[in-house]
């Protein structure tokens, strides 16, 4: 018998001063049996950092990356099903990233292991044609602290200012400063 996903619900209150995005979002996350709290929370972090102010061009959604290799962790599709933004977490291989760069207008990766700089150094030369790719590193200690905020039902306040994100339950707070590994602005 196959194991089923565990459902997690999160109420996010987002105040992103860097992008002028202020909104509340109720999200449902289907957590794959093999997924850790840390990885799931990085997906939630990626949602908070990339959700748009409105749904005029479609909306950002959690995808089925651990179930379907042709899907990312999250994606923003427009109403014609064109992929505007492909978001992966972890350390995907260069072939997957090149396919994503060909399918989407924009590709982002959020690495969260301490080995992320080594992974990136080994594949970055293979991705020079992927001008629409941005790779971010979340410090391993910060992502592990973020994992401790995980629960089946979460109420989280997310504040983003000057490139730093604070995620809080009201009782506990985690500060995260993603580091951009790809060149650009």
From TrEMBL:
InterPro entries associated with the record: Restrct_endonuc-II-like, YaeQ, YaeQ_sf
Domain of life of the native organism: Bacteria
Pfam families in alphabetical order: YaeQ
SMART domains: YaeQ
Protein name per Swiss-Prot or TrEMBL: YaeQ family protein
Organism: Polaromonas vacuolata
Lineage: Bacteria, Pseudomonadati, Pseudomonadota, Betaproteobacteria, Burkholderiales
Gene name in the database record: yaeQ
């Amino acid at each position: 018998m196959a194991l089923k996903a565990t459902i997690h619900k999160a109420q996010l209150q987002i105040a992103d001063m860097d992008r002028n995005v202020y909104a509340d979002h109720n999200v449902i996350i289907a957590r794959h049996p093999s997924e850790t709290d840390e990885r799931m929370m990085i997906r939630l972090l990626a949602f908070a950092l990339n959700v748009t102010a409105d749904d005029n061009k479609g909306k950002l959604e959690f995808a089925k990356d651990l179930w379907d290799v042709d899907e990312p962790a999250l994606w923003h599709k427009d109403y014609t099903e064109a992929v505007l933004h492909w978001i992966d977490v972890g350390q995907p291989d260069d072939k997957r990233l090149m396919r994503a760069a060909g399918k989407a207008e924009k590709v982002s990766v959020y690495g969260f292991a301490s080995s992320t700089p080594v992974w990136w150094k080994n594949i970055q030369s293979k991705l020079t044609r992927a001008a629409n790719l941005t790779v971010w590193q979340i410090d391993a200690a910060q992502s592990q602290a973020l994992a401790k905020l995980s629960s089946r039902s979460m109420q989280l306040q997310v504040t983003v200012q000057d490139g730093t994100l604070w995620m809080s339950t009201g009782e506990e707070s985690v500060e995260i400063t993603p580091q951009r590994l790809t060149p650009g602005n």
